[in-house]
Amino acid sequence: MSQYQFSLRMGDRVKAEQEVMTSVRKATNTDETAPKRKHVRNCIVFTWDFKTSMPVWECMKSQPLKASEVQCYKAIITLHKVIREGHHVTIQEALAQTKFLEDLAHGLGGGVYTGWQNYSVLIRAYINFLLAKLEYHRLHPEFNGMFDYKEYVSLRGTNDPNEGYETIADLMSLQDRLDEFQKLVFRNFQPASNNECRIASLVPLVEESYGIYKFATHMLIAMHQRVDGAEQALEPLRKRYNAQHYALRKFYYECSNLRYLTSLINVPRLPQHPVNLFGDDFVPSPITDRPESTDGRGASTPALASASRSTPTIDLEAERKAAEELQRKQQEEERQQKLLIQQQIEIRRRHEEEERQRQMAIQQQMEQQRAEQQRQLEEQQRQYEEQQRLQKQREQEQLAKLQQEQLQRQVQGKMQELEQQILLMRGQHERDQLTITQYNQRVGALEDQIRQLQQFQQQQDASKDELIRQLQEQIEQWRQKYETLAKLYAQLRQEHLDLLGKFKQANLKANSAAEVMGKMDRLQAEMRRKNLELADMMRERDKALADLQRLENSRSDELDRLRNELEDSQDRERELNRNRGSEAQDMLRKFNDQRDELQRELDARAAEADRLRRQLDDLRGEHEGLRQTKDDEIAVLQAGMDHSIVAMANLKKQVGGNQGDLQRRLDAVLSEHALKLKRILDSILRSCADKADEA
Description:
Blueprint (H helix, E strand, L loop, with lengths): L12 H15 L9 H14 L3 H9 L6 H17 L3 H7 L2 H9 L13 H20 L9 H7 L5 H27 L8 H31 L3 H4 L1 H22 L2 H4 L51 H195 L5 H141 L4 H36 L1
């Protein structure tokens, strides 16, 4: 069966590959978070549906993994889960991708990864572990990715102790590599980060290590039961097993303290002491995924034996105390940082209070000055308001002019657009006329072909008539020959009868004289000659009759054939004339309809252009009226402005002694009125924009 077998459950291979590409891209993004389980699960399900993992590898190769440490690390986590939980063909295809993994281990440009996340060491160690796992599967192809003991027993069995010893030894070596990598992951935890991406790599390691632990336990128990002298022969394996048991127990304890990891899976709890390999009391518990919820940690998996409820060892207590001491120090540092932050906030608050008091004093001073200068500024305020009103009117006039110019530009643009549409319609009409001319030419060519066919048919009919005439002439000649032969036959027959009569008379005179006998001999010789000629004539007559019959038959057949061909030609000619005529009529009718429709659309466009021209003329008239009105208002405002300037000059003369102080006050008033003027101008512009939109 092909590895690209079509799946009836998935249905569409192309759609599934697109979904896998999307899942890989989302699972290997640059965010320093764990790959989402649904994206990894989509890749795993694809391998089971289509019995291949090559699209996953191709998608991984298309991602810029060497550009980001986080993206590369997340890709390795995803590949580890796919290799472990995917279809068994995934391992075979992964063995062909070791060069790609080695390239990832070397990083950018053949060197190490560069970045501030410090993932380069983890990337190389993780890839080395994956390569060791693939090498183990290459040496032991009977294993699946999850190290299932029951499937291994069903495939291989445990009858060969040597093979079982090598398998367990290689598997424990892989477990040692896994233990080294998980220790490296814990050492690379960053205090200022949530370490979610690093913790995510521990999930497949926990599952992988527990699968190896279960398989080693089952295999060692079976070997201890089957091998004679197992206590001494298997002592090295038991020592390594016991050491790995304590290392795994410590590893699982550290993992159980990670809340994020316990929210993803149930961390297994191993008993305090290793399992008795000489007995049958080992009942391992499965590792299950936790449901995705925001509640706290779920219940742990059941223990491997009743000894799991016992207290931890002294090493674990010391480690717990060290962890608590480290946590206490971190809390003390956080408390000191919070205290320092509170002091800074208090200092900032005092500065803000002093600044606020200083601003209040300045504000009171300004209010006193404002009260003293209020009466003096009232006149200036009125003059400034008058000036502002005049300026506002000028701005309104300018805005009106701008609106009118904008409206004119819009109308001109609309007219240009309509003219372009008219030109396009004319071009379309010309193209339609050209198409009609081409179709007329085609119809003329078809009519010429019909005339040529008719002429050819007439020529054929003329040639057939000439052939018939020639045949009739030949028949007439043969008829004349036949009549001539018939006359000659009748004459010869009459002569033969006459000779018979003479012969009878000669017989009567047979006994006469020798002269009569000689004459008789001559007559007999003449009669024989005449008989021979008569026989020749009869043969010639029979031959002529046969030729005449053959000619008549061939003539009738030829006439029938020519008559049938003539009728067929006439039928084809009538059918061709009828088809060509109907086709030409349909084409003419269609083009006439299109021409009428285009003409109607052209008339509508012309009417629309006339209407827009009339609207433009009306707007121009309104524009002229508004311009005249604005000119009158400008003249009035100019007179008021001149009066205000004169009043301002008189005021400056009155306050000549206090000019410096007055100048400052005027500057303050001018700045305040400038703000008011800006607000008024904004309001005017908004109202003008609304009017322009309505127009």
